[in-house]
Amino acid sequence: MSRNKGVTIKKWFGKLLPLFTICIVGVVAIIIGIFYFNFISEKIYKDSTDHLGEIYGQVNRSFGAFVERNWGLLKSWDNNLKSSNKDEVSDFIAKEQDYWGFSDFYYISNNKTCITQNGTKVNMVLEGAWDSLAQRKEPIMAGETLASGQEITVFAVPVQHGKYKGFDYDAIAISYTNKDMANSLNVDAFSGEAKCFVIHNDGNVLLSTQEGGNIFGNYLTYLRAASDLDEESLKKLNNDWISGNSGLLQCEIGGVSHCILYQPVGYLDYFLLSAVPQSAVSAGFLSVQKATMNVLFVIFLLVSVSVIALIALRSHKQSRKNQIELQYREQMFDVLSNSVDDIFIMLDSENKSVDYISPNLERLLGIKVKEARENIRVMEKCAINFNVVIPANELESIPLNENRFWECEYMHQTTGERRWYRMTIYHMSIQGFKKYIVVMSDRTQEQQMNQKLQEALTAAKSANDAKSNFLSNMSHDIRTPMNAIVGFSVLLDKDADNTEKVREYTHKIMASSHHLLSLINDVLDMSKIESGKTSLNVDRFSLPELLEELNIILMPQAKAKNQSFTIHVQGAPPEQMIGDKLRLNQILINLLSNAIKYTPNGGRIEFLVSELPTAPHHQYVKLRFTVKDNGIGMSKEFQEQIFAPFSREVSSLTNKIQGTGLGMAITKNLVDLMGGIIQVESRLGEGSTFTVELSFTLPEKEESDSWYRQKITRMLVADDEEDVCLNIKEMMRDTGVDVSYVTDGSAAVETAIRAHRNGDDFHVILLDWKMPGLDGVETARRIREQVGENVPILVLTSYDWSEIETEARQAGINAFMPKPFFVSTLWQTIKPLFSDYTEQKDNVNEASESVMDGKLFLIAEDNELNAEILTEMLSMEGAKCELAVNGQEAVDMFKKSEPGYYDIILMDVQMPVLNGYDATKQIRASDHPEASTIPIVAMTANTFAEDVRNALDSGMNGHLGKPIDMDAVRELVGRLISDNKNES
Amino acid sequence: MKKRCFILLLTLTSALFLTSCNGNHNKSQDKNSLTIMGRKSDMEKSYMTSIFEQYETATGNKLEIIEFDDSEFEVDASKKFADGDAPDIFMHFNNADLNRFDVSDNFYYLNNENWVADLTNSSKAYCQDKEGNLLGLPFWESSVSGCFYNKTLLDSLGLKPASTQAEFDVLCQVLADIGYTPICWPADGCTWMFQFGLDPIFADDPSLLEKLNKNEVNYSDIPAVTNMVQWVSDAADKGWFGSDYLENGWSDISMIMGSGKAVMTFIWDTWFYTDFEKGNKYTVDDFALMPAFMNTADSGTYEGGNLNMMMVNKNSKKLDMALEFLSFCASSENYNIAFDGISTVSCFKGQTTNIQSSMVTNAGASIAKNERVSTAASKIIGYSADDVSAAFDRLFNKKTDVAGCVSLMDDYRIKEAKKQGVAF
Predict the structure, then answer these.
(1) Distance of CA A346 to CAs A79, A216, A329, A339, A442, Å?
(2) Cα–Cα nearest to A567, from A579, A581, A580, A555
């Protein structure tokens, strides 16, 4: 704390140092200036007063000389006056008056009477001087006011008694007007501002040089009234005058400083007093002083300006440096804030205006910085769970140097992205200004991680629950068929002699076994899918074949429940496409099996295949498979979890239906794996509709001129549904076959007969079985009757035609075609009707019938029980078996065999010593003549696609899953042996 | 007392004798009566009623007083003269309005009357025409106007009164320098001061007055007028009138002078007895009189009073009786009775019972030398103190300059003259 304080003081000291320096220099300069000014002033005052004294000393001396001269003149004239007659005296005085300039000449008697030169009597008072003149016989000088009001100064000297014009006189005098006298006292110096007085020592003014005339009566009184002299000073002054002392004093008169100089004239207590304004006295000196001061001031000013300029320059540089640093910091902060997801805001504590806001605001929240600067409350619209972003009352409640924090979720105004922020508000004092600093720390990742962790925890719990449920379900679902198998096996053993019971128990054991097997398959399949190990086996397949197989598989099931099962194809989807037929089959069988399973007896199941529009010329097709039933339906809640593993709706209806609860989960996962979508719509008690949309790549188009080569160019179609007719016509467009259609049997007969009569028979006639009026069979009979045996007639039906097959063939129907109509199906159907095909078919049938009989199988199986079962089952087919207990033994046995000794090898995969894959590789790598040709079939419980692929990769020719399905063994073995034979 | 009784008896005897001898001068219906015409307010003055009563008592004659309201006097009186119904005695001031009455044809010159020598110079001068003919007997209370100054205060300042314009200017400046208001010059309503400055210009040069009244010259043609206006303007600018003179009026003079705030003012002596309020720091005894200086007379000027004159109708059938009436009034015995206790400057040298201020008495020599007949106010045709004051008011308020002020004075004067029917 103290360290910080010390640093702060140093910083302040550093900033204020120039100011201190200026102040100190200024104060020193002012003090020096004041001392200098006082020194100069005192010097000037002394010099000025000396100058004043000198000037008025001269004036005083001149005045004294003037007085003495007048007295001298009068004394010198006395003899002339007495020795001359009146006229001569008059002439003399007139000449002297002209010469000396006095105003008049007087004869004065001792009895205070007086006459002028021309004899006029004058009343002359000569106040204060009379005694000197008359009694002490001294020359005098006195002021006098004539009757005319004119003020004069009289100079008189006592003379020997004389007589002039009968007037006895004892003194003679001359007078000067005071104006003339004043002129003699006037001093040109001091800019004419000086006033000179001749005063008596009591202060009475005899005469003055006051321009305009003397208006002063008593100067001491005047000074008392007009000056700032106190009574003591005035008394001292008066004492000086009485004592005949000279002196100089300074006082203010009317607010103007004056120098008062007084010097005794030396006669009759008169003083010469001069009053000069101080400014006039010192004018000359003051000008020097003023010039000096001006120079000093200019120097001081220049120095000050220079210092200030230097400081300003330095300050500017420092300020510039600080600004640059500030800019750097701001840029760095901008870059920093742009590279992080935290937002920084500085608010003024007083008016809540925005001082700073980091530029990443727009990136993070989609708010422009300018808008936020103008009104910080624009951020409120981003806040999701916080009504007021920075609540004013909350701000006010934060004490200085403390902070508060809130958490709040924001949404980006443009992208809608959500972010979590921890908003910490610091209330601080910066350079004396109170500020709020808001730091919005991005907690989005943390929040998301927490959410993920929460979800993971939930998932883990859910998985754990699922696992528990799974084990519980599996325990139940496995034990149920196992219980039946075990139970019926016991009963079988007990009732082994009862053929009827044995057959019954055997059927039930087989049924339970199949259920158990399907359960195991599903579980394994699901496990495989969920572990991500499932991959698609993509190959070319035929959609018609797929639908035919589905029809074959599912029709019996539906028929068993007396349900209506129909397959519709909407539009003209391509027949050949590339995809995983096996998985597609699995998906559709699952959906259709469920539909049959959860639809009561007599219900309706519809299977619709439709092509969805795609961009033209694209090499893929998008198909929608819709499975619709009017079964028991599903609750809304169950629909939401129908695709979850082991989810089965529990109700009185479903409880009686066996199921693993994995079928829909597997279906969903397979659809996802194939990049498709699956949806379900259902209402409880009204049925369900499952929709699957999948895309398949289209193969290269094949030439379709085979129809032309078979000379099939005209075809008649009869179906009561015109849409079906039009659909067939559309689908046949690419074949070049001209399709005519009618919508009832009679029209078909008529059209066929007419064509026949015209010699232009149809090359193929396709009839719907169930038409109003004439049905397909009857129509075929009538046509056959008229047109003969050459025209192939086919019946198109979605029903099982086995019941009417005999009748239909008798009516002349050549073949049946399942709905929906496919061109390829038609081709496959009519192709055998031509001679070359018939031969081929016969060969195949023969081959398949004899494939197992008499063949020698090398069986590699480590499980003795399985080996025994397989041996027995093959023996039932007429085949012989040799057994190897591991792969190595199988290899050895094969190598030792003669060529042609073994017809085929059935190879288990998981075996001790040498597994099936390696054993196959060794066989294929051996030098046995049939090493590369001997058919080897995997026979394993590993039934996944990759197992099949691994088997094929190791050199095997096929794959059979356990438990062994003899139909599958028969089909595969027959094909492989046939192929092997053809190749050899 | 005996002398007075004797004179009264002699006068009455003479009157009876004259009356019997000059009966043809009187109207047939009343031979012993005289008609005397004047303003009503003038006729009601105490000294007028006194002299009338004295006359009627002493002579047994009757005075028939013909009075007109002041506002109607000039018109009604001139109409009487025009109608041939002129009175025996006519009272009028010797001012410009007198010209309405054809002076030379209607009034008897009194130059040779016995009482003329008893007139003071100023009163005699006032009653003369430009040729020096005495037009009437001055019988009126009068005053002397000049610069009254606070002598006590001035003495305490060690200063003397001025005797010249230059000294006066110096005095004003010195007083101003030491913080006093030299001249009390209330601008609001104090309209008389300007005529003091104008008097010397026209009194000293009657020909100039004549030219002005004949509209041959204007004020603006007379440099002295401009000089006076300039001086007043400068004095105001220098602060000689004080800082608040524009707000001060007639009623403020007493306080300003009595308190010693101002040292001097231009006024008349009787003001100190009629309007100078008691209780002030300074009393009437503290004041003295010196000439008024307005830069038109180097030695300054005093304005003599305006005097009402008794003029005799030269065409009256009772001319002698009228002249005898004037002689009765000019008798020191009678006028001293009439003016006993009246504060006035003397019109007669033998006037002793009136009250004359010591200020005037002490300044007697100066007054005698520098007094001038009230000329501007009474002799300049179209002169109006209010108009001149209005022109100066604009000058004081800086709404015009000196030349503008002089021009305004001319404009107002000519306008007023035309209003009076003078053909300029």
Answers:
(1) 116, 81, 15, 19, 17
(2) A555
Distance CA A973, CA A980 (A): 10
SS3 state at A475: helix
Query: What angle, rounded to 10 degrees, do the helices at A945-953 and A916-925 form?
Result: 30
End-to-end Cα distance, chain A: 102
Q: Each residue of A123-135: pLDDT tens digit?
A: 877 777 778 888 8
Q: For residue A839, is pLDDT > 50?
A: no
Give the Cβ contact number of residue B289 at 10 Å. Answer: 28
| Neighbour tally for B249: CB within 10 Å | 13
Q: Over pLDDT 70: what percentage of chain A?
A: 87
Contact B158 A210 (CB under 8 A): no
Our count of domains for chain B comes to 2
* Count of beta carbons in the 10 Å neighbourhood of residue B199: 28
Label the pairing between strands A738-742 and A714-718: parallel
Report which of residues A29 and A753 the model is more confident about.
A753
Q: Which of B150, B163, B240 to probe by mutation at the A interface, max A CB count within 10 Å?
A: B163
Q: What is the DSSP letter of A399?
A: P
- Domain of B66? 2-142+306-357
For residue A253, what is the nearest residue in chain B, using CA coordinates? Answer: B178
> What is the average pLDDT across A176-202?
77
- In single-letter form, the type of residue at position A153 comes to T
Gyration radius of chain B's alpha carbons: 23
Please state the pTM of the whole predicted model.
Answer: 0.49
For chain A, give the number of residues.
984
What are the tens digits of pLDDT across the range B264-287? 999 988 888 888 888 889 998 999
Over residues A884-927, the pLDDT tens digits come to: 999 999 999 999 999 889 989 999 988 888 999 999 999 999 99
pLDDT top residue among B392 and A510: B392
Classify A453-527 by CATH class.
mainly alpha
Residues 131-150 of A with CB under 8 A from B: 147, 149
Q: Is residue B424 part of a domain?
A: no
Which H/E stretch holds residue A607?
strand A604-612
CB-CB neighbors (< 8 A) of B150 in chain A: none
**CA–CA separation, A819 and A472 (whole Å):** 44
Task: Express each pLDDT in A77-110 by its tens digit.
Answer: 888 777 778 788 888 888 888 888 888 899 998 8
Contact A215 B155 (CB under 8 A): no
Within-domain flag for B371: no
**Where residue B26 falls among pLDDT bands split at 50, 70, 90?**
very low
Which sign, positive or negative, has the C-alpha torsion A377, A380, A382, A383? positive
Q: Where are the alpha helices (DSSP H) in B1-132?
A: 2-21, 40-43, 46-59, 73-82, 103-106, 121-126
Tens-place pLDDT, residues A615-666: 666 678 899 999 999 999 988 888 888 887 665 565 555 555 556 667 888 8
Q: What is the pLDDT of residues B78-88, one digit of tens each?
A: 899 988 899 99
Query: What is the DSSP track for B330-353?
Result: H-HHHHHHHTTT-B---SBTT--S
Which listed CATH number (1.10.260.40, 2.40.50.140, 3.30.450.20, 3.40.50.2300) goes with A706-833? 3.40.50.2300
A143 touches A129 (CB < 8 A): no
Q: Say yes or no for a CB contact (<8 Å) between B160 and A203.
A: no
Q: CB-based contacts of A68: which residues, under 8 Å, 6+ apart?
A: none
> What whole-number distance in Å separates Cα of residue B53 and Cα of residue B300?
41
In terms of Cα–Cα distance, which of B126, B35, B30 is closest to B319? B35
